[in-house]
Design goal:
The complex is a heterodimer of chains A (about 300) and B (about 250). With about 300 residues, chain A is of the alpha/beta class. Chain A has helices at about 15-25, 45, 70-80, 90-105, 205-215, 225-230, 260-265, 295-305, and strands at about 5, 10, 15, 30-40, 50-60, 85-90, 110, 115, 120-125, 130-135, 140-145, 160-165, 175-180, 195, 220-225, 250-255, 270-275, 290. Chain A folds into two domains: about 5-165, HUPs (Rossmann fold); about 195-305, TPP-binding domain (Rossmann fold, 3-Layer(aba) Sandwich), CATH 3.40.50.1220. A seven-stranded parallel β-sheet of chain A has the order 7-11-6-1-4-5-12, sandwiched between helices. Chain A has a five-stranded parallel β-sheet with strand order 15-14-16-17-18. A three-stranded antiparallel β-sheet of chain A has the order 8-9-10, with no helix packed on it. Chain A starts with a strand and ends with a helix. The model of chain B has no long low-confidence stretch (mean pLDDT about 95). The chains are: A alpha/beta (about 300), B alpha/beta (about 250). Strand 18 (about 290) of chain A pairs parallel with strand 13 (about 235) of chain B.
């Protein structure tokens, strides 16, 4: 058995944390070849991850934005040498991997949360309301791994890096522009602490108190879908089944009722704190510590005391 | 230009999901079923393009059990012109895999020759987020997933995509497949006169067997269980109590 793991790379930026977590998930399946396809990215930190047998480095402008048509052709060309093809379940991989699977005439297995054996995988369905164990009868398993439940692989001795030639690019789609929300805060999916706001925060301006608490704790800021839909927070902050899945050491939910689709995105957090004025809010059923109080009093006071 | 919109009949998003006692699947007996919410957004976007004069016909297609006719009628009531039902299962608990759905849709595309396919980004039952991409691969078309904005110009679709870090703009050559995310639009409700009118719109029924597609599952479901529940913790009296607890367990 051998695994081809596609590293998360955007342009020259390597998503080391997500890749390292996916690596520790798939390492038990066999020797891992890491595919580093990007534009101007340095593959050295990837080669230094514990459990990597080899890095395949391919560099070119056509790989700068992980366009699915071009990247899937490259992965399919490398597929015959592997039994498993995997990637962290990022939005880029979610666009590419079903395409890869269809080109190989196999069924894709998305958002894997547990690898039970070489052919059996666990994944959430129905917005996290159920968990399904499935056995793939396909010769190659093509899957994306939900990284929140896995620890990042540590660094070790550097694995060899083989440079491979770019394949022909596809002109079916062209990258135009990224509109990235700039922030000095830690990245949501890898932050140790996440402070999230929900509908109870009430407005975009009031999100300032959530941001202030987050900055005090060097935390990332998250939001419920209700808060995103109401325009209080941008979509890329959304935590939940249709947003980001996080598992920080500490998750502080402010004014979030705890809809099942939100819980699916944060219930693996080590410690959950809920602040909500509604004592019946479902969020209290999963919280380790709850405060039934007005968040506009509690959150600034918490910020003050933790400074 | 003709737009093809695949729609799926799934458990209504307001229904509390329960797992069957034999752990074979989620229980779909006697529960309210509706059109997959992301597919509704795709239908709405197709109708808006037709209203703007950028499309001439909106055809909806569903692959599933006989009762999927209901969601096709809903789409017709919203304003779609005609519908195709590919009957591919007898039991509502048979979830036809995205690969098989994509293969069947590829046959429909060969017959209908649409200039654009608009689909939901994922179905809220199996949460696979795969059918659109798989169909694009089988057709050799370009794709743009998780669209929150769509503009059509000569032979090109400019799509704003919801991605991890924010938004990404891409240009996709048509014909293309675009999958729709929540913020693309707010789907309309069908009015009563339109619901009545929809009953007379054409709905063609085809058996999946006629297409000669192997729809056998590649993923064998071993079991379906409810996720482990977290135990509720303690309600604290004050912010002071919370701060000392968090310090006590080393969380801050």
């Amino acid at each position: 058995m051998s695994v081809l793991l596609v590293a998360e790379i955007s342009g020259s930026q390597i998503g080391l944390d997500a890749t390292a977590k996916a690596l520790s998930a798939v390492a038990p399946l066999g020797p891992v070849t890491l595919l580093a396809a990007g534009e101007g990215a340095d593959p050295a930190p990837l080669a230094a991850l514990d459990g990597v047998a080899k890095v395949l480095h391919v560099d070119g402008a056509i790989y700068g934005h992980q366009m699915p048509e071009t990247l899937s052709d490259l992965i399919v060309a490398l597929a015959p040498e592997h039994t498993h093809i995997a990637a962290p379940a990022t939005t880029a991989a979610k666009a590419v991997f079903p395409r890869v699977a269809a080109l190989l005439d196999v069924m894709v297995i998305t958002d894997v949360t547990k690898i039970e054996s070489a052919d059996t995988f666990e994944r959430p369905i129905y917005a996290g309301n159920a968990t399904q164990s499935v056995t793939s009868i396909d010769p190659i398993k093509v899957m994306t791994v939900r990284t929140a439940g896995f620890d990042a692989a540590p660094s070790a001795a550097a694995a060899p890096i083989d440079v491979i030639d770019p394949s022909a690019g596809s002109d079916l789609s062209q990258w135009v522009e990224d509109r990235v929300n700039e922030s000095d805060r830690p990245e949501l999916t890898s932050a140790g602490v996440v402070v999230s706001g929900g509908r109870g925060v009430g407005s975009e301006e009031s999100f300032g108190i959530i941001n202030a608490l987050a900055d005090t704790l060097n935390a990332a800021v998250g939001a419920s879908r209700a808060a995103v839909d109401s325009g209080y927070a941008p979509n890329d902050m959304q935590v939940g089944q249709t947003g980001k899945v996080v598992a920080p050491d500490l998750y502080i939910a402010c004014g979030i009722s705890g809809a099942i689709q939100h819980l699916a995105g944060m219930k693996d957090s080590k410690i959950i704190v809920a602040i909500n004025s509604d004592a019946d809010a479902p969020i209290f059923q999963v919280a380790d510590y709850g405060l039934v109080t007005d968040l506009f009093d509690a959150v600034p006071s918490l910020t003050e005391q933790l400074k | 230009m003709k737009i093809l919109v695949p729609v799926k009949r799934v458990i209504d998003y307001n229904v509390k999901v329960r797992v069957k006692a034999d752990e074979s699947s989620v229980d779909l007996n006697n529960v309210k079923m509706s059109m997959n919410p992301f597919d509704e957004i795709a239908v709405e976007e197709a109708l808006r393009l037709k209203e703007q004069g950028k499309a001439t016909e909106v055809v909806v297609v569903s692959i599933g059990v006989k009762k999927s006719e209901e969601v096709l009628r809903t789409a017709l009531a919203m304003g779609a012109d005609r519908a195709i039902l590919v009957e591919a299962a007898d039991d509502v608990h048979t979830d036809i895999e995205p690969l098989a759905v994509a293969k069947l849709l590829a046959k429909v595309v060969a017959a209908e020759e649409p200039g654009l396919i608009l689909a939901g980004k994922q179905a809220i039952d199996n949460d696979m987020n795969a059918t659109g991409q798989m169909l694009a691969a089988l057709l050799g078309w370009g794709q743009a997933t998780s669209a929150s904005k769509l503009e059509l110009t000569d032979g090109t679709a400019r799509v704003t995509r919801e991605v991890d870090g924010g938004l990404q703009l891409v240009d996709v050559k048509m014909p293309a497949i675009i999958t729709c995310d929540l913020r693309l639009n707010e789907p309309r409700y069908a009015s009563l006169p339109n619901i009545m009118k929809a009953k007379r719109k054409p709905l063609q029924i085809i058996s999946a067997a006629e297409y000669g597609v192997d729809a056998a599952p590649r993923l064998i479901v071993n079991k379906t269980v409810e996720p482990p529940q977290r135990a509720a913790g303690e309600i604290l009296a004050s912010v002071d109590a919370l701060v000392s607890k968090l310090k006590e367990v080393g969380a801050v």
